[in-house]
């Protein structure tokens, strides 16, 4: 994706909306020096990864649905920002082509982490950006893939991590930027994609 995209011109004067409740996505955009609002999607996460040819198509389509729903709502609802740019994203952990999203409870988090223990998996993030350019609605989308390998971790350490409460709002049940960084043996690809 070239850096001289027309959408980037005068970006400081554009109204940017993040279509995500993720605190990590907010931190990344803030660290980039961008001013933005957050408007989360009203559409429930109904996508089924098994209905897609690939897991990459799944995250790309989920990100698209989030971005487009928020963009349309921002155009129609005067209570919301009149968005020039809406950024939607979806991240999943994939192990043996099984999608591991956010754990439902402690048992689910424990099962996920045991599945990843001593193994490689990959993290996929689909990003979909909807923006106005010369009175036209344009779109940019991409999917980033990063391979992560966990070390062999003591079951007691996994249980303590689950008991800490950290896994519950994170795909795959872990956050690489938190305590689970100790589980990671290697990473091939973009670290920020995993964050």
Helices and strands in order:
Layout: E1 16-18, H1 23-31, E2 36-38, H2 55-76, E3 85-95, E4 98-100, H3 106-116, E5 120-133, E6 136-150, H4 155-163, E7 184-188, H5 191-194
Parallel strand pairs: 1-2, 1-3
Antiparallel strand pairs: 3-4, 3-5, 5-6, 6-7
CATH topology: Maf protein
- Percent of residues in helices comes to 25-40%
Structural class of the secondary structure composition? alpha/beta
Gross morphology is elongated
Q: Note the main sheet.
A: 7 strands, mixed
InterPro entries: ITPase-like_fam, Maf-like
Pfam family, one: Maf
Cofactor: a divalent metal cation
GO molecular function: nucleoside triphosphate diphosphatase activity
Keywords:
195 residues; alpha/beta; Maf protein; seven-stranded mixed beta sheet; 5 helices; 7 strands; elongated
